[in-house]
Amino acid sequence: MTRKSPSRAVIAALAPLAIAMAVLAAAPSALAQFEQQQTKLPPTPTSSDKPPALIQYGVLVVLTGGVVALSIMKSKREVRN
């Protein structure tokens, strides 16, 4: 019994199926990699990027004092009768 090689038409017809099977075979490993990347937590910062509260309150007092001083200051325009 001699074996015939498959015709080009059969090979061409089965090529998309072979590609689909290869993609499906690789899908579980790709999904596992994706899940592994999703479970990683971002690094926690070691130092705080926010300035201390005392500095924030100091800036608040200085700005509020400036606004109050400007609003209380006498206007240089005087009314002349």
Summary keywords:
81 residues; mainly alpha
Structure description:
It is a single chain. This protein is an all-alpha fold and 81 residues long. It has a domain at 7-40. The protein has 2 helices and no strands. It has helices at residues 8-39, 53-72. The longest helix is centred in the N-terminal third of the chain and has 32 residues, at 8-39. The protein starts with 7 loop residues before the first helix and ends in a 9-residue tail after the last helix. The model has no long low-confidence stretch (mean pLDDT 76).
Distance between the termini: 128 Å
The major pleated sheet works out as: none
Number of helices: 2
Q: So what's the overall shape?
A: rod-shaped
Structural class: mainly alpha
Number of strands: 0
- Percent strand equals under 5%
